[in-house]
Write a structure and sequence with these properties.
This protein has 302 residues and is of the alpha+beta class. The protein has two domains: 28-170, Chitinase A, domain 3 (Roll), CATH 3.10.50; 176-301, Chitinase A, domain 3 (Roll), CATH 3.10.50. 22% of the residues lie in helices and 28% in strands. It has helices at residues 3-43, 112-115, 125-131, 176-190, and strands at residues 50-51, 59-63, 76-85, 91-94, 101-104, 139-144, 164-170, 196-197, 203-208, 221-230, 235-246, 266-271, 291-301. A hairpin with a 5-residue loop joins strand 8 (196-197) and strand 9 (203-208). It is elongated.
């Protein structure tokens, strides 16, 4: 056997050994994860869990309302998600309490990109597969093995080789503005408040009628006192010393309703998320948050 043939044979044997080692490591991780998930199902009596039809390794169960049609990839889905460790129950990800997540069903596999504050897109088809078994308002629980999730590298707060317990709760609304309107109406009913709904979809309650003479436009300079809250009552911003100055061109769209009023007015605004900070949120304001403002118009300058 010449040297060239010997070298080729050695290279082939080395490649085969490396490939076999990688395959063995992968199969071992798969076997370990599958055993852990089955033990978790048994320990927690999750009798409704079923393996996915393609037998890729994740398990799921769904709970659906009795009416409606199943989600399609092209549908919008409004949802909340909780992601916990199957090992010790640690919650790694939780949707914000004063907002909700939303995307197209077909994009659900990559929602972790923003949730984990990373530029990496993680492809997790199990999430989309389970949600496609849901109708709006349904809930999916997914037991995801680490090799179908974030693997040996982990991501953000999720450690390496971590099997995950997902709960994806969807809402029975096809549009965010419909969901926001339902949130506001539910809040008003619960608090026994009577508000007027503007054509802009902002709800308002006038506490004190203003007596100023200047007409407010988007270019008017306004001195305002205000407090901003979420619907759970938590305050996220406030300026009550009478030094805050702005034009309506410089603030969220929902404040445009102030053109209806005069200096001296005290008004409460309930603003849908698309007229506030929308799907992106802002600092402490989460995505798709409905906002509740108390505003006093102190002075108007044109």
């Amino acid at each position: 056997m010449n040297k060239f043939t010997q070298l080729s044979l050695f290279t082939l044997l080395l490649a085969t050994t490396i490939f076999s080692s990688c395959k063995k490591e992968y199969d071992s991780a798969q076997t370990i994860d599958d055993a852990a998930i089955k033990a978790y199902i048994s320990k927690n009596n999750l009798t409704q869990m079923q393996p996915d039809s393609a037998k890729t390794g994740f398990y799921f169960q769904v709970t659906n309302p009795t009416d409606g049609s199943f989600f399609l990839n092209t549908d919008s889905v409004l949802y909340d998600v909780t992601v916990k460790s199957m090992t010790n129950g640690t919650t790694y990800l939780q949707s914000p309490s004063n907002g909700n997540l939303g995307t197209y069903v077909g994009y659900l596999n990559s929602f972790f990109q923003s949730s984990l504050s990373t530029t990496i897109t993680y492809n997790i088809p199990a999430i989309r597969t389970a949600v496609l078994k849901l109708k709006p308002g349904g809930t999916a629980r997914i037991l995801l093995p680490s090799y179908l999730g974030f693997g040996k590298n982990g991501a953000g707060p999720i450690p390496s080789n971590e099997n995950l317990d997902f709960i994806v709760k969807t809402y029975p609304y096809r549009k965010q503005w419909l969901f926001d309107d339902a949130k506001i109406q539910s809040y008003l009913t619960a608090k026994n408040l009577t508000a007027t709904k503007d054509l802009s979809r902002v709800y308002y309650i006038v506490g004190t009628e203003g007596t100023g003479s200047d007409v407010i436009t988007n270019e008017s300079t306004l001195i305002l006192k205000y407090t901003g809250r979420f619907l759970d009552g938590t305050s996220f911003d406030s300026s009550t010393d009478g030094t805050f100055s702005t034009t309506l061109n410089s603030v969220i769209a929902g404040w445009g309703l102030l053109t209806k009023f005069k200096a001296g007015t005290k008004v409460r605004l309930f603003i849908p998320s698309d007229l506030a900070y929308g799907t992106g949120g802002h600092t402490s304001i989460p995505p798709n948050a409905v906002l509740d403002f108390d505003i006093e118009i102190v002075k108007v300058t044109n």
